[in-house]
Amino acid sequence: MTTRANFWQTTRNILSLPLDIVRGRAVVRIERRLTTPRWMTYVVPVISIIVALLLGAILLAAAGVNPLEAYNTVLTGAFTSLDGLAGTAVKSIPLILCGLGVALAFRTLLWNIGAEGQLFMGAFAAAGVALYVIPDAPPFLLIPAVLLAGALAGALWGFIPGALKGLLGVNEIITSLMLNYVAILWVDYLIYGPWRDPQGYGFPGTAPFEAVRFPRLPGTRVHLGLLIGILAAVLIAFALQRTRWGYETRVIGENQQAARYAGMSLVKNILLVMFLSGGLAGLAGASELCGLTNPRLQIGLSPGYGYTAIIVAWLARLNPYAIVLVSFLFAGLLVGGDSLQMAMNLPRATVYILQGIVLFAVLGGELFVRYRVRIARQEE
């Protein structure tokens, strides 16, 4: 058994035992639950969100802002107007697709932290097809080609850490994370260098490619990408629940040792899952590009969608349908954060701090779902 396997086995053994914390003559015991009441899976997340809002209120108050006014500004800016709802729906699209990608990997105990880089590689490939491969193709051919190229580029970028993990045992957390920087800097090099629009008045970015612009819901900014994200969630949910591959994925995620004894190929599934995970993130990059009013590869394409998607996937408990809902709520936080920034002169980083607080509160709540706390008298 390898050193890494010994480490994780030891960790699992420790977590499976009661943890005693002595305080005077009382003993606080943290024990793993044998069964979890169904109501806890619904009540604990709600309580966790309330706790997160209270902690966020303390942060806002420390910044000299009325928390109630701040939260009202966020809700008003994101959910109470047609324009706000449209903006929230548009920002939810990359979160849905990237969230589905990382959740698919997480279900197989693969920690794909590279969705951000896979998104950028998807946008790069989509722009390359639109600019240089078939620039004169009609939209009904160009849009599918651009989406396919983006998904394939993201899939290949995700396949790299998958191959290193499956064939050589290299830690996928490190490789997928490091590849983010390679992808982002590669795109920066192109838009500042060879692909820079000579008629862009000095601003970094490629020439526009209007033919790939997604059709929109009349009178709004909501575009075809939202439908793509929802369909992707339905297909992933169906594949996980109704196909042999989905069954193997679930078994591997629960117990790799049992999966190996059952004859399931861990290497094949690792490669396939990382390929699909990266493909979904690459599709997010292509969709984000095609959803722009003036499609072009430019600075600021993603404010960190690939990283936020990790939070989304965990808050949704890796459920494809829940990812759609959580993505919409988190997108509302981003849109409302813009309103908060303008109305109350708060830095944009405040929104990301609030996101982090929500994540920690929900993960902390999971402790009470999986474990119980018992207080007993210390034995003499």
Order of helices and strands: HEEHHHHHHHHHHHHHE
**Low-confidence spans:** 1-5
What count of helical segments does DSSP give? 14
Q: Kindly, what is the distance between the CA atoms of the first and last residues, rounded to a whole number of angstroms?
A: 41 Å
- DSSP E strands, number: 3
Q: Which class of secondary structure composition applies to the elements?
A: mainly alpha
Helix content: 55-70%
**Approximate shape:** globular
| Major sheet | 3 strands, antiparallel
Could you tell me the mean pLDDT?
87
Radius of gyration: 23 Å
Percentage of β-strand residues: 5-15%
Please list the strands of the largest sheet in the order they lie side by side: 1-2-3
Structural account:
The protein is mainly alpha-helical and 380 residues long. The protein has a domain of 228 residues. Helices cover 69% and strands 5% of the residues. The chain has 14 helices and 3 strands. A 3-stranded antiparallel β-sheet has the order 1-2-3. A hairpin with a 2-residue loop joins strand 1 and strand 2. Helix 5 runs parallel beside helix 7 and helix 13 runs antiparallel to helix 14. The longest helix is centred in the middle third of the chain and has 30 residues. It is globular. The N terminus is likely disordered.
